[in-house]
Amino acid sequence: GGSLTKLAYYSTVQHKVARVRSFDHSGKDIENEPLYEISVQEEITARLHFIKFENTYIETCLDFIKDHLVNTETKVIKATGGGAYKFKDLIEKKLGLKVDKEDVMTCLIKGCNFVLRNIPHEVFAYQKDSDAEFRFQTNHPNIFPYLLVNIGSGVSIVKVETEDKFEWIGGSSIGGGTFWGLGALLTKTKKFDELLQLASKGQHTNVDMLVKDVYGGAYQTLGLSGNLIASSFGKSTTADKEFSKEDMAKSLLHMISNDIGQLACLYAKLHNLDKIYFGGFFIRGHPVTMRTITYSINFFSKGEVQALFLRHEGYLGAIGAFLKGAEQDNPNQYSWGENYAGSSGLMSTSPDVYPMQRSRSGTFDMLEMDRLERPLVNLPLLKDPSTYIPDTVDLTDDAMARKYWLTCFEEALDGVAKRAAASQPDSVDALERAEKFRQKYWNKLQTLRQQPFAYGTLTVRSLLDTREHCLNEFNFPDPYSKVKQKENGIALKCFQSVIESLDSLGWEERQFALVKGLLAGNVFDWGAKAVSDVLESEPQFGFEEAKSKLQERPWLEDSYSQWLERLKEGPPHKCALIFADNSGIDIILGVFPFVRELLSRGTEVILACNSGPALNDVTYSESLIVAERIAAMDPIIQSALRDEKLLLVQTGSSSPCLDLSRLDKGLAVLVRERKTDLVIIEGMGRAIHTNYYAALKCESLKLAVIKNSWLADRLGGKIFSVIFKYEVPCK
């Protein structure tokens, strides 16, 4: 680019992963052996890295490439943007590689499509005067068509219809270069960022002629307010005085932004488009340009169109050039996820926060994306994927909740670091790595206190996911693996007696006992401090003790009677999809008896568990072993597994929460094939922190025990209050 070099590269990262597998028990006494063995293995995953350098440090950038990224097989380096011409000879000489120049616009759009598809909180609207100045948008599953307005030296307006189909539909020679050039002539300030700094302090009304200056007030006939600009720089023709640099810079900024905003609106109307993304060096995360563009679009569209900006806007060209070079590997066939541990986040635009960081290096320093094992798609049963928001509370908006949860995660951090170190007793550097993890996550939390919008909308889910990413970064893939192994073993020993006691009850009594068992199982959550304290201090705390902790009916949210009525009066469901939560008592004594009852009614069951570990949540590979053991004790489960009436699948997630818009493609296919008509979501992370308000096309059950007193209080209950939410979609 004109002032920044953006570098995109691919690497393979060696990570430790925890694997579980059954022991071969032939002819052994298995009474006192663990249920399965846990091994930590090395796994190689793919990662994309994006880094920014200022062009003044181009030599440093090339040294970095030469030392770290060029191997004997590298013959060509892909480049795009003005710098691809300017620095071509330097790059070829220094690296000994051929520079392969790619078309700027093609790269820009490829990059734009990539981030829109893979980063859920990529897009934001800018609102300067609200508490949360960034309003992040939910990614629409269908990103096309959209208008991309790229404001560089001039303005290019491109209509993007599909992955490969786009056309330049218009533009203007009056763009960022005009602001910079005219601004330099007017103020003698040569630097773009300094010009913006002047504009942010200026008062344009000292230079611009307003409607009220012409008509003495508003122009009622045309519905124009008195404060509207009638003529940019209009006062300079009549006023006999010197104008300040700040005021002239502000007037110039308004003049150019309003012109671009009106153009963009006219093209959007002409082509019937309601999504307009703005990018280019004129924007580059600068609050003052985002504000004027937002105002202009809002004014000219009468509030019908919103100006949208991208978190990683500066990287689009580099991402696109990289994708062009990697086409044989087809990066688009995979899903990618932002790695919060290695990404620096959107810097604050408030001048008082970290003023040193808003230097010329722009707003974004580093981004890392991890390739996910399997493609992720929407749950087909979402009522409206375009309006689905997984998270219940937006902490970016809610200052009180934000303060509570950040403190909560800070206070839990020492315990998490200790647990991580203790999970690898044979490792010589476990303590050192645990301390590095603690430091890294602590720093992330401090950043989020200052800049809650650093990684998009701040939520309990993003705080949990960031913690998991940081644990993985320092090779703690599954700190709770031993805890889960032990709890699964203990719970399996109780399975038969729980089933016998359930089978001895009458039908109605049994339905209530099953629900109570599901809820009691949900108490066993090492992620909740109130529970982990009890589990640490009272090792004998078990299923019956958990039942006694539960709130008596009526519950905090209680539609149990409607659920019972539905079971009594309605036909059996065709197929139920159950999202499981914790290992041990939860899955074995809570979920499996419930699954068994559904199967007995003639309902098929898809049991979905996390693909990778998070806290003490049950993983898909653990669920396979647990199901195999249960099948050996229970003929109903055994025949259901054999006849594929009970299917165990992975969610595609490694989070304690649940995003129904990013689920394993195989799961989505199965949900459609089996005509699923009931979704059951259990647990605080999946049914309260996320999906509490999720609207589905079919019946749903959301149930959880609230194991956090602040959250219970906020919802109007006490700790161990019960949420039992049975919902039927409106016909």
TrEMBL record:
Entry's Gene Ontology molecular function annotations: ATP binding; hydrolase activity; metal ion binding; pantothenate kinase activity
Cofactor: Mn(2+); Ni(2+)
GO BP annotations, alphabetical order: coenzyme A biosynthetic process
Keyword list, A-Z: Acetylation, ATP-binding, Coenzyme A biosynthesis, Cytoplasm, Hydrolase, Kinase, Manganese, Metal-binding, Nickel, Nitration, Nucleotide-binding, Phosphoprotein, Transferase
UniProt catalytic activity: (R)-4'-phosphopantetheine sulfonate + H2O = (R)-pantetheine sulfonate + phosphate; (R)-4'-phosphopantetheine + H2O = (R)-pantetheine + phosphate; (R)-4'-phospho-S-sulfopantetheine + H2O = (R)-S-sulfopantetheine + phosphate
Record's GO cellular component terms: cytosol; nucleus
Gene3D superfamilies per UniProt: 3.30.420.40, 3.30.420.510, AF1104-like (1.20.1700.10), Uncharacterised protein PF01937, DUF89, domain 2 (1.10.285.20), Uncharacterised protein PF01937, DUF89, domain 3 (3.40.50.10880)
Chief place where the protein resides: cytoplasm
Domain (Damage-control phosphatase ARMT1-like metal-binding): residue spans on this chain: 408-717
Short name of any one Pfam family annotated for the protein: ARMT1-like_dom
Compartments (UniProt record): Cytoplasm
Entry-linked PANTHER family: 4'-PHOSPHOPANTETHEINE PHOSPHATASE, PANTOTHENATE KINASE
Subunit structure: Homodimer. Interacts with PKM.
UniProt record similarity statement: In the N-terminal section; belongs to the type II pantothenate kinase family.
Task of the protein: Phosphatase which shows a preference for 4'-phosphopantetheine and its oxidatively damaged forms (sulfonate or S-sulfonate), providing strong indirect evidence that the phosphatase activity pre-empts damage in the coenzyme A (CoA) pathway. Hydrolyzing excess 4'-phosphopantetheine could constitute a directed overflow mechanism to prevent its oxidation to the S-sulfonate, sulfonate, or other forms. Hydrolyzing 4'-phosphopantetheine sulfonate or S-sulfonate would forestall their conversion to inactive forms of CoA and acyl carrier protein.
Protein's name according to its UniProt entry: 4'-phosphopantetheine phosphatase
Organism of provenance: Pterocles gutturalis
